[in-house]
Design a protein that fits this description.
heterodimer, A: alpha/beta, Rossmann fold, 2 domains, seven-stranded mixed sheet, six-stranded mixed sheet, B: about 300 residues, eight-stranded mixed sheet
């Protein structure tokens, strides 16, 4: 029998971590992530989940400790938001460089200063270049499903994975969520394979000082230099595009649901006007597309699920033949424009098709975004009134 | 039972020729004796960016026969916690987790993660090798540098502040085992690491590690400088087991019948003190005497 519960995305994240049988959890509380840490503490202290739980004194230590636990072979989990995520920044690079399959939930929140506890995606977008896989969820079902898939992906290719979902909009809003059965999750996600060193008592110097050029090892083989190591990370991240799709397909076969792989489409088959976005905002954009269709405009939506690696080919293919592209996003690269807009435009440069391109920054620090507003702005973009800007500036 | 002679120390070496540490490195000697007291085949070492990173060699070669996990500078306490938690979760409880960090990585940038780990009761041994400055980056001042020392960031005035009381901070965490040691007194060092290994929970050791290039003394004087530090009382050998303080080794014999050497005798062989004023010498002597008297008082209070 299907187990459907009316829960928040934060509960979905905690349940997902339990279903994945995580062995070490380390976390530091920050709004709006706190319920994840509380629910996991409840599960561990009541012995419903057999895991070590470190109530660390900072996010830097949260990430440092899960990386270290992962390095000795444990399956690990943490979660953070906003300034907490920024405080982890050094360790996020370290997790990726160490090739540790850490999985974390990022509950998207605007960053200070000035202080806001409400939602936008500036926090995770600011971590774009740390070498992590970033998956964005459009709803709470995708949160539970994506965390389960994230372990599959991360442990297959040894790259840490961040599952991002919007603070309050998803994190504190209850919606029906189908809970995957433990047996099926176990079938989908076997225990993590043993790591070298601990299992065979060999002497290893993990993450040592490295030179720029390859160097001869005592085994007579050339070992890579720093740049070669980094190239491997880059190559594997590009490979992860395929892995993310496969993990989602395999998930669909077992659970009958898909998150869309690297990106999902809404009414794109006949669309002349594409709206591109990610997170819950992309979900809301589908309502805007419907409003535009009521006005006779053939609008559709592409929801980006994997922001890093960036599925350039998939998105560009989906945009083939459209007349206009309108991007809505809750982040900005200050001094230029939204990060997704920049990446997508760069992707389209290689394409034969160069649709008219418009980009908007919306909803920073929790400013409400209505489907009607999105539809109006997209309409202006399509009809050529405006090409980029910040929506709904009030003062 | 205290180890009575150097010939009784294990013969096996875990640091092989080819380390990248400087000649006559106090830290290297400390690490050498510490590994002999542990079981390196069942030990995982957490190391921050430091002289230890350099000592462990450049990829893909390492001269040390132990699993070493390198970490960012401020992360040692948290990383050691994570290693211990990971090992426990996987049922590998027979490993010793050793965090090995310098004074900069302990007194300064690493103090938050260390305090957090100790407060939580994390199960690892933390050894701070105190060479009294950021030696790996070129002898900058740390909060462990002594007053009157020239460093590359106190080049003109020499350091104006006394050393931070890190032991006092660690003691405030009420952990089961705290000890100080010196590579100039290897038997004492070895015995303390052994005791620490067999204690459960957070354990802290601080080892005074003379640094020839950082302090400005000839390589041949490494042991002499380590001994002078203890003889002058600028470094005191003791252990605190479950809150009970006891002087050990040379510091114990000094307390029982010897006489401390003066700070002037300690500093005269080190070029880092060449700009120290008489006022600073007096202040340093007063600082050392006051601390020594506190230790003596605590030692006698616990000796009955």
């Amino acid at each position: 029998m299907t187990d459907v519960r009316i829960i928040t995305a934060n509960s979905a994240a905690a349940i997902a971590a339990k279903l994945c049988r995580v062995q070490v959890i380390s976390a530091y509380p920050i709004t709006p992530q706190t319920p994840v840490t509380e629910e996991l503490a409840q599960l561990v202290e009541s012995k419903e989940l057999d895991a070590e739980y470190l109530t660390v004194e900072s996010e830097h230590s949260a990430m440092a400790s899960v990386i270290a636990a992962s390095q000795v072979g444990a399956r690990v989990f943490t979660a953070s938001s906003a300034n907490g995520l920024l405080y982890m920044h050094e360790m996020l690079h370290w997790a990726a460089g160490s090739r540790t399959p850490v999985v974390m939930a990022c509950v998207n929140r605007g960053v200070g200063a000035p202080w806001t506890i409400l939602n936008d995606q500036q926090d995770s977008i600011s971590q774009r270049d740390t070498g992590w896989i970033q998956l964005y969820c459009k709803n709470s079902q995708e949160v539970i499903d994506s965390i389960i898939q994230a372990y599959k992906i991360a442990e297959h290719i040894d790259i840490p994975t961040m599952v991002c979902y919007d603070g309050f909009i998803l994190s504190h809003t209850t919606t029906p969520v189908e809970i995957p059965g433990q047996e099926l999750v176990d079938q989908y996600l076997p225990p993590r394979r043993q790591v070298k060193g601990i299992s065979d008592h060999s002497f290893m110097n993990v993450n040592p000082l490295i030179l720029s050029d390859p160097r001869l090892g005592i085994d007579g083989k050339m070992a890579p230099g720093y740049m070669d190591m980094r190239y491997r990370l880059q190559n594997d991240l590009i490979k992860a595009i395929g892995l993310i799709k496969e993990a989602d397909q395999e998930f669909e076969q077992l659970f009958g649901r898909s998150c869309g792989g690297v990106c999902w489409n809404y009414k794109m088959s006949d669309a002349a006007h594409a709206i591109v976005s990610f997170g819950s905002l992309a979900s809301e954009c589908t309502l805007a597309a419907d409003l535009l269709r009521q006005k006779g405009l053939r609008a559709g939506v592409i929801g980006l699920r994997s922001y890093r690696p960036f599925p350039k080919n998939e998105i560009v293919k989906n945009l083939n033949g459209v007349e206009t592209v309108t991007v809505f996003e809750k982040d900005v690269s200050y001094g230029y424009e939204g990060a997704l807009a920049m990446d997508l435009k760069a992707g389209l440069y290689d394409s034969v098709n160069h649709p008219k391109f418009c980009s908007y920054v919306v909803g920073l620090g929790g400013r409400d975004v209505l489907p009607e507003t999105l539809a109006n702005e997209a309409y202006k973009a399509i009809t050529g009134e405006i090409e980029h800007g910040w929506v709904d500036i009030k003062a | 039972m205290a180890t009575s002679a150097a010939k009784l120390l294990p013969k096996e070496e875990f640091i092989l020729p080819g380390t990248r540490s400087c000649a006559a490195c106090g830290l290297m000697l400390t690490y050498r004796h510490a590994l002999k007291a542990l079981d390196p085949g069942k030990t995982i070492v957490a190391v921050p960016a430091s002289c230890m990173t350099v000592l462990h060699g450049v990829y893909p070669i390492t001269p040390v026969k132990v699993i070493c996990i390198n970490n960012p500078f401020g992360a040692t306490g948290a990383a050691a916690s994570g290693i211990a938690a990971g090992l426990k979760a996987l049922g590998n409880d027979d490993y010793t987790v050793l965090a090995f960090a310098g004074d900069g990585g302990t007194y300064d940038i690493g103090i938050q993660a260390l305090s957090g780990a100790f407060e939580r009761g994390a199960n690892f041994l933390y050894i701070c090798y105190d060479n009294e400055g950021y030696m790996n980056t070129g002898t900058q001042r740390s909060s462990a540098s002594p007053a009157g020392a020239i460093t590359s960031t106190t080049p003109v005035l020499a350091k104006l502040q006394h050393k931070k009381n890190m032991i006092g901070i660690v003691e405030a965490h009420r952990i089961p085992y705290i000890a100080t040691a010196s590579p100039a007194f290897p038997l004492d060092l070895y015995d303390k690491v052994k005791t620490a290994k067999d204690t459960y929970g957070p354990r802290y050791m601080e080892v005074h590690a003379p640094c020839p290039p950082g302090w400005g003394f000839p390589n041949k004087d490494l042991i002499k400088m380590g001994k002078l530090a203890v003889d002058s009382g600028i470094h005191v050998l003791f252990e605190i087991k479950d809150g009970v303080f006891k002087l050990t080794s040379r510091s114990l014999s000094l307390a029982e019948k010897g006489k401390k050497k003066t700070i002037s005798e300690y500093i005269k062989g080190q070029t880092r003190f060449k700009k120290i004023s008489q006022d600073q010498i007096n202040s340093l002597q007063e600082f050392v005497d006051q601390r020594w008297n506190e230790f003596l008082e605590r030692h006698h209070r616990n000796s009955f």
